[in-house]
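Backbone-to-sequence.
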């Protein structure tokens, strides 16, 4: 019987080790679907065996070994078994239950920059693949996100995303796309796809698309680790620096974003003494180095927006006119409804609430935001600031069933209660 301690250990291992396990199996077998299926079986086996055997010292290594043996069993029964077994056999698997350095190496704990996860990202981001397919497949295989979670990130139906994932995997097999970090002269053509993957991975950790936890710190840290690796591979690429700076500046606020009761604390309400000063300074330095290249890009612009918040000693010191200008520029690079919605907030916070609400109204007809809870949450916040409590309450009511996480629902419920008793203006999206 699974105990709470074992369930917690397996859940933690899934968040932290799924990508390592799957990436290693893909390298060994070349079969993406087999890698995912065997990884899932390994986690199921952990739920069965760990209550009796105890939680292993290195859960990732244990899971990789078990999944590897499952893969070999499957290959022995498959039509391509002999060929793939020969490939897999070039790296001998330790027997089941083995612990120690061999398993640590299998689980990707060597720290080598060209580890399996980085190889996996570059394979997924091959220019022969469509951009959205590259990002989606990497989020599925590296982060273990469900098809539904990825669909929400892209604002598309789940069935559409399932077909996209299937087509992308098939393209990799048909085109025989190699599983490797490409040579230096080919890195630039992969940059946009790789950065998109890393930032979506970070965003899923920063604001989880479902579940009880708003923040999945392990995903943020994995994205930052891989962004550092990419920066080492491409030290003069300003957008790689900008993306890493952006992640560090956002991640620096993690300790201040949640209250003791698990409720979301907005950027305006956060205790800035709890922000990570070292990460802020590193992020600002990276941004300054990127901007010296004078090659503006969307990640540098987003990092510049984050820097405006990081430099403000208090919420009242925030340079909202500068942020609004940066969002207007960002729209030229990323003409998305989400960027435009963020600009609406900045315009309103810079002093023109009516102009901000006008932008929100324009976005109401965009089908991509039909189930995006922040559209109505933003409308509600601006209406509350204008002093229109009744209209704000109605908007909060519309946003509430769309909120993807427990923390965000609690926040919206609190705002809904407040609009019934007070017109006090406070709080902006975090």
């Amino acid at each position: 019987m699974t105990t709470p301690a074992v369930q917690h250990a397996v859940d933690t291992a899934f968040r932290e080790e799924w990508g390592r396990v799957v990436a290693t199996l893909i390298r060994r077998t070349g079969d993406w679907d087999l890698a995912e299926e065997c990884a899932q079986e390994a986690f199921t086996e952990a739920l069965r065996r760990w209550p009796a055997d105890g939680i292993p010292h290195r859960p990732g290594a244990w899971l990789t070994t078990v999944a590897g043996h499952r893969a070999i069993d499957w290959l022995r029964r498959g039509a391509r078994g002999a060929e793939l077994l020969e490939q897999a056999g070039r790296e001998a698997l330790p027997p089941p239950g083995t612990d120690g350095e061999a398993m640590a190496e299998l689980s990707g704990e060597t720290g080598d920059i060209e580890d399996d996860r980085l190889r996996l990202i570059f394979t997924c981001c091959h220019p022969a693949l469509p951009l959205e397919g590259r990002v989606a497949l990497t989020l599925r295989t590296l982060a273990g996100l469900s098809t539904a979670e990825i669909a929400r990130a892209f604002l598309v139906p789940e069935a559409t995303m399932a077909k996209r994932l299937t087509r992308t995997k098939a393209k990799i097999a048909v085109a025989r796309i190699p599983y490797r970090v490409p040579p230096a002269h080919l890195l630039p053509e992969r940059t946009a796809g790789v950065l998109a993957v890393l930032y979506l991975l970070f965003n899923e950790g920063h604001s989880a698309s479902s579940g009880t936890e708003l923040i999945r710190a392990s995903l943020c840290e994995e994205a930052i680790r891989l962004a550092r690796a990419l920066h080492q591979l491409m030290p003069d690429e300003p957008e790689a620096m900008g993306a890493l700076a952006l992640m560090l500046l956002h991640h620096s606020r993690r300790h201040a974003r949640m209250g003791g009761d698990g409720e979301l604390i907005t950027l305006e309400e956060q205790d800035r003494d709890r922000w990570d000063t070292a990460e802020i300074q590193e992020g600002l330095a990276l941004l300054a180095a990127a901007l010296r290249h004078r090659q503006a890009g969307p990640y540098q612009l987003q990092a510049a927006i984050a820097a405006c918040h990081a430099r403000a000693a208090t919420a009242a010191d925030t340079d909202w006119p500068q942020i609004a200008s940066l969002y207007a520029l960002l729209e030229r690079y990323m003409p998305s409804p989400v960027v435009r919605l963020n600009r609406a907030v900045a315009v309103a916070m810079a002093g023109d609430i009516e102009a901000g609400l006008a932008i929100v109204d324009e976005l109401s007809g965009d089908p991509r935001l039909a189930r995006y809870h922040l559209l109505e949450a933003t409308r509600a916040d601006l209406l509350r600031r204008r002093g229109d409590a009744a209209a704000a309450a109605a908007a909060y009511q519309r946003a509430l069933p769309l909120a993807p996480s427990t923390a965000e629902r609690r926040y919206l419920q609190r705002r809904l209660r407040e609009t019934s008793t007070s017109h006090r203006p406070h709080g902006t999206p975090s």
